[in-house]
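Q: What would this chain look like folded?
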Amino acid sequence: MALKNKKKILVIGERFYPEEFLINDVVKHWEQLGYDIRVLTQFPTYPEGKIYKGYKNKLFKKDYYNSVVIHRFLSITGYKEKKYLKYLNYLTFVFIGSLRVLFLAPKIDIILIYQTGPLTQAIPALLLKKIFHKKIIIWTWDLWPEAVYSYGFKRNKLNSYLLAHFVRCIYSSCDRILISSPGFEKSLKKYCHGKQLEVVTNWIKPHDKPSSSLEIIFEPDKTHFIFAGNIGTAQNIDSLLRGYAKAKKSNSNICFHIVGDGSALESLKVLVKNNSIEDVFFWGRVSESDVYKFYDLADFLVISLNPDDAYDKYVPSKFQTYLDVGKPILCAMNGEVADLVIKYELGKVAHPDNLEEISSAFIELINTSANEKKHILVTSKEVISTLFNRDINLNYLHKVICDLS
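A: My prediction, written as C-alpha cells:
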C-alpha cells in the first residue's frame, strides 16, 4: 500500500537496469509504495565494457524505468580489456556525476548510494551533503580499503594513510551505513566514528521463467557441475579447472559447465585447450532467467573466489541464487560463504588454492546420497527464509527511509 507524504529519493550507483543488479528490485518495490524516485547512473556496459544495444553513449540523457526517472551520463567503454580505462571510468563517474547531481538537488530529500564498485562513487552524494545538507544512506557491497589492495594497489604507509582518510571521510558523512555482509563489520567499524553498521543482505529477486528459445542439451549419463556468473580473475576459475582436471582422471563421468562472461574468459579457454581438459563447456553470457535452465539440468553448483582478506568477507549474490536452486554446492572459498556451507551442511568446501582439496570435493560430491540431497534442498530454503529473506530486507530498507524522513 502506498504511504502518504513520502520523501523524494535519489539512488546513485554505477549499475542499474537493464544491468541485472539487486537495486532494480529495490527501486521497483519503492515505486510500488509510491515513492518519488530518481536514479543517477551511467549508460549500461556491465560486464562486457560495451554500451548495450539500444543505447547511445551521450554526455547526459534522461531515461525511464517504469515511472522512475533515470539520469544517465557518459560511460568509458573498453575497461574489460584495459585497466586504465576502468580507472578513467571511475573518475568520469565522480566528475560528471558531481556536475549532474547539482541540478537534481532541489528535487530530492534522501540519497541512497548503491556502492557495488569503487567507494569514489559516493563523492557526488557527499557534495549534496555538504552544500544542501541532504540525508545520505550508503549500502556497501565492495569493501574498501581492502578491495583496493586486492586490485593491485601498493600497500605502503602513504597509500594506507590516504585511503584510510578517504574511507573515514565517506562513512563519517553518511547518516546510515548498511553493509551487505556481516563480515564487513569488523573491517569498517573503525572508519565510522561509532555509527551503527546495519546488515542488509542480498536476497533472491523475483525472476521470470526462461522466455528465450535457448536450447541446452546435457549428456544424460554424466554428472554435471555448473559455475554461473562473472568470469574474472577474482573468481579463481583457473584453480577450479585444474582441480576438475585432476578429478576427471579419477572419474571420467563428470562434466564442468561455465556459464557467463568476463575478463578471464578467453584465458580460461586457452587453459582448457592447452591442457586438453575434457568435457568443459563454455556457454557464454545468458539472460538472468535463462540461467535457471542450466540450474535445472545441473547436478551440482560451483562457487569460488580467490583467497583474500577482502573476498573472504563477501557473500556473493550467486550464493543466494544457489540456495534458491537447492542443489549441493562445491565451495572453493574461505570466509563467510565457506562457514555457511559447513554450518548448514550444504555441500563440500575446499581451500581455493588447494588443487587436491578441489579435486576431492568434485569426487566426494558425486557420492552425495538422495537423503543428503533432500536435506540440502530443505535446508537451503530455510537459510533463505531466515538469513536472506527478501521481505525482511525490503521492509528494513523502508524503515531506514522512514527514520530519515
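The mean pLDDT is 91.
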